[in-house]
Amino acid sequence: MPESPAAPAARPTPAAPGELSAEDAKLVVLARGARGRVGAVEGAAVRDQDGRTYAAASVALPSLTLTALQLAVASAVAAGATRLEAAAVVTEASTLDGAGHAAVRDLATDAPIHVAAPDGAVLGTVVE
Fold first, then answer.
1. Dihedral sign (CA 95, 99, 104, 110)
2. How many CA atoms lie within 13 A of 53 on its CB side?
3. CA distance 24 to 44
4. d(Cα 112, Cα 126) in Å, to the nearest integer?
5. Which residues of the chain are under the pLDDT cut of 70?
6. How far is residue 92's CA from residue 51's CA, in Å, rounded to a whole number?
7. Taking the CB of residue 122, how many other CB atoms lie within 10 A of it?
8. What pLDDT shows up at residue 16?
């Protein structure tokens, strides 16, 4: 069985926050809800090429660990998404995790990834 590549170690730092569109603000609300429902470390939401949204919380099991953003992207792909328009992560961290960043970039090299605090305040946006 081929080995899977190691998760990226890079932790992109968000650029200064700007004004979010209504659709991107909705992603932050969905991510906060996903995080709050289960008391997870992170919540995330993504919007696909058709405007459909997918929200998820981080998973930490003995046999499986996924960031919220990885799970949201996986849910989108499992539903048929081929491209992402935008993403949001609600976290206590001040940077975006490398694995979640890589998952979004697998489907979109230019989709903004908004990073928000648990209270919903946008800390910044990763665009690279």
1. positive
2. 17
3. 12
4. 6
5. 1-18
6. 27
7. 20
8. 53
Q: How far, in Å, are 60, 65, 68, 96, 113 from residue 15 at the CA level?
A: 28, 27, 21, 11, 10
User: What residues contact 70, with CB distance under 8 A and at least 6 apart?
Assistant: 99, 100, 103
The predicted model scores a pTM of 0.85
Q: What is the pLDDT of residue 8?
A: 44
Query: In the numeric block, which tokens belong to residue 111?
Result: 């989709």
Asked if residues 45 and 75 have their Cβ atoms less than 8 Å apart, the reply is no
86: tokens are 């935008």
- pLDDT given for residue 1 in this prediction: 35
Q: Do 124 and 96 contact (CB within 8 A), yes or no?
A: no
- pLDDT for the residue numbered 7: 45
Q: Which two tokens stand for residue 89?
A: 């992560």
Residue 2 near residue 93 (C-beta atoms within 8 A): no
